[in-house]
Amino acid sequence: MLDKISDRAREIGDEVERFVREVVVPYESDPRRDHHGAPTDALMHEMRAKARDAGVLTPHILEDGSHLTQVETAYVLIRSGLSPLGPLALNTAAPDEGNMYLLGHVGSDHLKEKFLRKMVAGEARSAFLMTEPAVDGGAGSDPSMMQTTCRRDGNHWVVNGTKAFITGADGAGVGIVMAKSEEPDSAGGACMFLVDLPDPAIRIDHVPNTIDSSMPGGHATVRIEGLRVPADQMLGDAGEGFKYAQIRLSPARLSHCMRWLGACIRAHEIATDYACRRMAFGKQLIDHEGVGFMLAENRIDLKQAELMVYWCADVLDTGDLGTTESSMAKVAVSEALMRIADRCVQVMGGTGVTDKTIVEQVFREIRAFRIYDGPTEVHKWSLAKKIKREWREADATADRD
Fold it and tell me: Any idea where the Acyl-CoA dehydrogenase/oxidase C-terminal domain is (predicted)?
């Protein structure tokens, strides 16, 4: 798959890596964090200004509005992830990257001009309001359980409901709101709407403290009461929201894999440097089999994760939604990266659990990554259902023969 990366994309990716290592990494010790430990918007805008000046802001979207291929995007986003701050600085972070992808593929010219332009320019963060509180029986890994509703009222739609774990909602300038239609011609399907934030009808109830801390705005619980959205701010067609969610989620899952692979590459570099410098029992740590083997296993897992990312990216480039492939990649890569991050902490001992390096943060972020965009178990369950369906189809064909 690497032979499908153009010289232009390689140049972009290499410049992104240089920028992250030389400009972004020093910001890792910057104290501008909110009470949840996430970077403040002031820190984000300062880094983005430097990325804009360096010509690497939103590097996967070209000046004419076209996108790099998924394989090329992988080459770039892996490098943007070499620092936990990298995706934020370069505007390749979740949920913005996935939201830009969705708007670019489904949005009307009106929505692209009103919302996508400022997102691509790095001027506004965005939020994707789909997940709902589990205590209310709302949508989580199963979006068909959606409780948030929308109904027509003249040339507007009115939305009501509660959302949970909405990444970046606090401080976002753009929101994509997903709701189940009450209109008979929508057959109970979901709709998506673009809204300017903040909006008095969208209230943040609270932002919980979570194990991860790389995303501004945290993961808020949001209450929507009487939100009126102009009809021309519906994304696509009424009742097609679940289909659009899949258009977004398959590449978004893979983009997560790309970014966090970059973070684990860096964590492995830090752990390797530590093991090669630290002496214990008369020799370097890496010369102790227990430590050296962990780093060797890291190298194996890193390569397997990289190959899985590029393979799935290549499938998406064929035009297939790649839901099965993205599920497999999400499981394989997130679990491999968790092993890598855990070994890095273990190799570094006490230093590994401190904030002297990014290793402990990468460990926390990867642990959260195993849950968001679908936990491992949900993807395995989905894959098992497909395996059973394929068996039934093959068995039926055998009976006919």
Answer: 239-386
pLDDT for 140 equals: 76
Mean pLDDT of 30-35: 94
Pinpoint the residues of the chain covered by CATH 1.20.140.10.
Answer: 242-390
For range 51-79, the mean pLDDT: 95
**pLDDT greater at residue 319 or residue 268:** 268
CATH architecture for the domain at 242-390:
Up-down Bundle (1.20)
Give a three-class secondary structure readout of the chain: CHHHCCHHHHHHHHHHHHHHHHHHHHHHHCCCECCCCCECHHHHHHHHHHHHHHCCCCCCECCCCCECCHHHHHHHHHHHCCCCCHHHHHCCCCCHHHHHHHHHHHCCHHHHHHHHHHHHCCCCCEEEECCCCHHHCCCCCCHHHCCCEEEEECCEEEEEEEEEEEECCCCCCEEEEEEEECCHHHCCCEEEEEEECCCCCEEEEECCCCCCCCCCCCEEEEEEEEEEEEHHHECCCCCEHHHHHHHHHHHHHHHHHHHHHHHHHHHHHHHHHHHHHCEECCEEHHHCHHHHHHHHHHHHHHHHHHHHHHHHHHHHHCCCCCHHHHHHHHHHHHHHHHHHHHHHHHHHHHHHHCCCCCHHHHHHHHHHHCCCCCCHHHHHHHHHHHHHHHHHHHHHHHHHC
Domain with CATH 2.40.110.10 in the chain: 127-239
Whether residue 363 is predicted with pLDDT greater than 90 in this model: the reply is yes
Single pTM value for the model: 0.95
Pick the CATH number of 127-239 from 3.40.50.300, 2.40.110.10, 3.90.940.10, 3.30.70.1140: 2.40.110.10
pLDDT value of position 186 = 64
